Amino acid sequence: MNNEEYTPDIVSIIDEDGKEHIFEELDRIETDTGRYVALLPLPEKPDEITEDDNELIILRVEEEENGETYLCPIEDDDEFNEIGAAFEERLAELFDFEDEAE
Questions:
Q1: Are the beta carbons of 21 and 33 closer than 8 angstroms?
Q2: CA torsion angle for 91, 73, 75, 36 (degrees, to 10)?
Q3: Is 69 in contact with 4 (CB distance < 8 Å)?
Q4: What is the pTM of this model?
């Protein structure tokens, strides 16, 4: 019986203002320099999907000594470009990245 149903990995993130944001985790990469996730914002209401909701968010995964995990922006341009290119290659079937390069 092949009843494979797609169940997305949903991630809830609380920002520094205490506001909750919901994302679908599309992929994760682990390199020598760290761990990273590619997230897709999910709208609060499915009928409110806008063009901005298709923006891929790439964050660095950081763990504190107490075991808590944080998702942080990648501030180094070279690191961001390298990780972004890796995700772009892996997720090319889901997204058309050429439009953003123009």
A1: no
A2: -40
A3: no
A4: 0.73
DSSP symbols for the chain = --------EEEEEE-TTS-EEEEEEEEEEE-SS-EEEEEEE--SSGGG--GGGG--EEEEEEE-TTS-EEEEE---HHHHHHHHHHHHHHTTTT--THHHH-
pLDDT tens, residue by residue, 32-54: 889 999 999 887 766 655 555 56
Place of tokens 């169940």: 7
Q: Is the pLDDT of residue 28 over 60?
A: yes
Given CA atoms 57, 28, 100, 95 in this order, what sign does their dihedral have?
A: negative
Q: What is the CA radius of gyration of the chain?
A: 15
Q: How far is CA 100 from the centre of its chain?
A: 17
Sign of the C-alpha dihedral computed for residues 43, 15, 64 and 75 taken in this order: positive
